[in-house]
Specification:
Strand content: 5-15%
Radius of gyration: 21 Å
Distance between the termini: 27 Å
Number of strands: 6
Shape: elongated
Helix content: 40-55%
Order of helices and strands: HEHHHHHEHEHHEHEEH
Number of helices: 11
Length: about 280
């Protein structure tokens, strides 16, 4: 018996009809943002890696993952992201830190960047002499790839989220960088949510259940009236269940491959599939 399943109340002496009635009182949804909405269920490390592959930088995926972890920790503890930064500017910052790390570790150098630039460029090769300008050239290209990817996924999701907002009170809860509102405004998504909680603004990060409790309190609903939707089993699903909420897992390409083997329902492959499940 899997007590994490959506319908597990039936195993606890609750009849099917009672469970259906319980499900029908759902009044609110708490959604994650990163990877849940802006990359269609794909962990952002995978999208970034695709961006690196697009420019043919000769690094291994393990080297990239080291740089990714370093940059995420650096951004978490240093005020390098401005509240007004849009998603492109955010990605410039994160990727810039990653490439600086790769340079510091010797995985990249000026000769490698120059050679890659010549191979990658079509037609006339840009004249870039300084290693920092070279690095910034690649940062901007990868950031542009990521921005276009996120914008495309978000614009695809907006009609579905707008429909859900007509039926449910919506909150957005995300481990973010202090600029979530600016990103939502840039993508035209902010109008869909009554409540937006950015971890950097409230000083609480997932998987701490209290960041979800903040949203529950602001929605003025009971936990059992809310469904939490996110792409991380450990950071979204488990804290939601601990609080007594329902939870739907957006199960896409994960950072932790072991998560892909977890048997949990209900799950959806993307936010687009989620809409049909909640009608």
């Amino acid at each position: 018996m899997d007590c994490h399943r959506f319908g597990n109340a039936a195993y606890q002496g609750v009849s099917d009809n009672e469970e259906i009635e319980k499900n029908n009182i759902m009044k609110g949804l708490i959604l994650d943002y990163g990877a849940t909405i802006d990359s269609n269920g794909k962990h952002w490390s995978e999208v970034l890696w695709e961006g690196y592959c697009q420019v043919s930088l000769p690094i291994t995926k393990d080297q990239f993952r080291e740089a990714y972890i370093y940059a995420e920790r650096y951004v978490s503890f240093n005020p390098v992201v401005q509240p007004t930064d849009n998603f492109f500017e955010l990605m410039q910052t994160r990727i810039g830190i990653q490439i600086d790390y790769l340079l510091q570790q010797g995985h990249l150098n000026e000769d490698i960047l120059q050679t890659t630039l010549r191979l990658f460029s079509e037609g006339e090769v840009p004249i870039v002499d300084d290693v920092h300008d070279l690095a910034q050239h690649f940062v901007d290209i990868i950031a542009g790839y990521c921005y276009d990817y996120a914008r495309r996924c978000t614009l695809d999701a907006i009609p579905y989220i707008e429909k859900l907002s007509e039926k449910y009170d919506l909150a957005l809860v995300s481990n973010f960088y202090g600029n979530l509102s600016a990103v939502l405004q840039d993508f035209g998504l902010g109008r869909c949510f009554r409540i937006v909680i950015d971890s950097s603004e409230v000083g609480i990060r997932k998987p701490d259940p209290q960041i979800f409790q903040l949203a529950i309190d602001k929605l003025n609903l009971k936990p059992e009236e809310i469904t939490v939707i996110g792409d991380s089993y450990s950071k979204d699903i488990l804290p939601a269940l601990e609080l007594g909420c329902k939870a739907i897992w957006i199960k896409g390409t994960s950072w932790n491959k072991a998560d892909e083997q977890i048997d949990y329902e209900p799950s959806a492959s993307s936010i687009l599939q989620l809409y049909d499940m909640l009608q």
